[in-house]
Write a structure and sequence with these properties.
Number of helices: 11
CATH superfamily of the largest domain: Tetrapyrrole methylase, N-terminal domain
Number of strands: 10
Largest sheet: 5 strands, parallel
Order of helices and strands: EHEHEHEHEHEHEHEEHEHHH
CATH architecture of the largest domain: 3-Layer(aba) Sandwich
Oligomer: single chain
Shape: elongated
Length: 290
């Protein structure tokens, strides 16, 4: 029997599909991220099935148990707390292993936060990229945003409420002050969309507490070539620190921490200032001919 990946509502329980409910009723066991969350969904629809916890802390060990169940003919339904399993939620390890072993697997279409957020943002839907959470070590975040900054595509991020101000500041510094939208609590009572420039959204998030599950959407690079937008505020600050005799590496560190500007980008800008200074020193008359 197969593994069936079943999306669950991100907010309103009525977003559950009829096919998804049928799969949960027919499953021999339901693997779920949090049994306390899933039991509320099952109780709402009068479904009684065995639950097996499957989350980020046990997914590798639990995968073998679920594989064994599938191999012996059990029908396993996989759900997460909300949305489609495997999209910034546990599930990929099990799905990949089932496919690798040639076992049957099916994925149902259903609720997710990404597409509603993209459409509610008012930004381009012609091309878009999902970037997940802006987590990881400093180098990982820096490398990730350098790649994303070049894309001529609308970008979607998942953001934890307590990280919103920090992530907005990071993106404003790394991407420039692009059009963006905060879309929170999709399909819930307090659903809200806040549109504006990244800097405006940062100011709003600093002025009020924004709660709930958040998707942050930003416009893509404005040029088809994919070149990232150079900022302005951080450049002026870099020039001032340079004039004060602060070392380039310390300037790069400070601007990354303040604005999220990738260090290599700061160093390239400072190198350009050095070359400009050398040209002026070698040509004090101010002629434009080199």
């Amino acid at each position: 029997m197969p593994l069936v990946v079943v999306p669950t509502p991100v907010g309103n329980l009525e977003d559950m599909t009829q096919r998804g409910l049928r799969e949960l009723r027919e499953a021999d066991v339901i693997a779920c991220e949090d049994t306390r969350r899933t039991i509320k969904l099952l109780n709402h629809y009068g479904i009684k099935k065995p639950l097996l916890s499957y989350h980020r802390h046990n997914e590798r060990t639990r995968t073998e148990d679920l594989i064994a169940r599938i191999e012996t003919g059990e029908r396993v339904a996989l759900v997460s707390d909300a949305g489609t399993p495997g999209i910034s939620d546990p599930g990929c390890v099990l799905i990949d292993e089932v496919i690798a072993r040639g076992l049957p697997v099916d994925v149902l279409p259903g609720a997710n936060a990404l597409l509603p957020a993209l459409l509610l943002s008012g930004l381009s839907t012609r091309r878009f990229a999902f970037a997940g959470f802006l987590d990881g070590e400093r180098k990982e975040r820096e490398t990730k945003i350098q790649e994303l900054a070049k894309l001529d595509a609308t970008l979607l991020f998942y953001v934890a409420p307590h990280d919103l101000g920090k992530d907005l500041a990071f993106l404003e510094g790394a991407l420039g002050d692009r059009d963006a939208a905060i879309v929170r609590e999709i399909s819930k009572v307090h659903q809200e969309t806040i549109r504006g420039k990244l800097g405006e959204l940062r100011d709003i998030s600093n002025a009020r507490e924004i709660k709930g599950e958040i998707v942050l959407v930003t416009a893509g690079a404005p040029h088809a070539s994919g070149a990232a937008i150079p900022g302005t505020a951080w450049m002026a600050e870099a020039g001032q620190m340079k004039n004060e005799g602060i070392f380039d590496k310390d300037i790069a560190k400070a601007l990354f921490e303040s604005y999220g500007i990738p260090r290599n980008r700061v160093k390239t800008f400072l190198l350009g200032l050095d070359k400009m200074s050398e040209r002026h020193q070698g040509n004090p008359g101010g002629s434009e001919d080199d």
